[in-house]
Write a structure and sequence with these properties.
108 residues, mainly beta, elongated
Length: 108
């Protein structure tokens, strides 16, 4: 089930769905929750050992893995909330949190 919110501004109180309801399994991929992030992780691939600790600890599954390594598109900007757990837990400090919008290139 997907909510039709095209006329959201016309909804009355009773029209809003009850909070904390998951109307369909796996629907979180449709909700881009990364918009409130104030920081984002930047990866230094020269330091990263692909231990995947960041992937394990990420509460939002925003770290992508392919073939048991960080994927080329390793960071899911749509869902990362900028909590910094990945950078905090990285054993080799390959991840650094930077202010959102800051143009710091990733080291490839």
């Amino acid at each position: 089930m997907k909510w039709d919110i095209s006329k959201l501004d016309e909804w009355k109180t009773d029209d809003f769905p009850m909070g904390a309801v998951i109307p369909e399994a796996g629907n979180s991929k449709y909700y881009r929750t990364g918009g409130w992030r104030s920081q984002r992780p930047v990866l230094d691939r020269n330091v990263c050992t692909n231990c995947l600790t960041c992937w394990i600890v990420c509460p939002d599954t925003s770290i992508r893995v392919a073939d048991e390594r960080l994927a080329d598109d390793w960071f899911d900007e749509d869902h990362c909330k900028g909590c910094g757990v990945c950078a905090n837990e990285c054993p080799v400090e390959a991840l650094t949190m930077v202010p959102e919008g800051c143009e710091i290139p990733e080291v490839k």
